Q: What sequence folds into this?
């Protein structure tokens, strides 16, 4: 790897870091949690089995996202 490539990669990482941090903070926020639950509760009542199953997978995915660690 050339020094130029490593320098650009480091710069790109530094630019992306604040976005990752903000995204992590949002997924950990209470507002996101309440909004997700509200949306799922509203939709489950008139959803088919396949849709309910999909919503369950999405909620599991979101709970997994909260455990992401940004180094």
A:
């Amino acid at each position: 790897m050339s020094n130029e490539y490593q320098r650009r990669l480091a710069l790109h990482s530094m630019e992306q870091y604040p976005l990752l941090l903000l995204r992590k903070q949002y997924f950990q926020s209470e507002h996101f949690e309440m909004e997700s639950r509200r949306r799922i509760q509203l939709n489950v009542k008139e959803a088919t089995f396949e849709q309910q199953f999909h919503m369950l997978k999405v909620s599991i995915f979101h709970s997994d996202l909260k455990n992401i660690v940004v180094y």
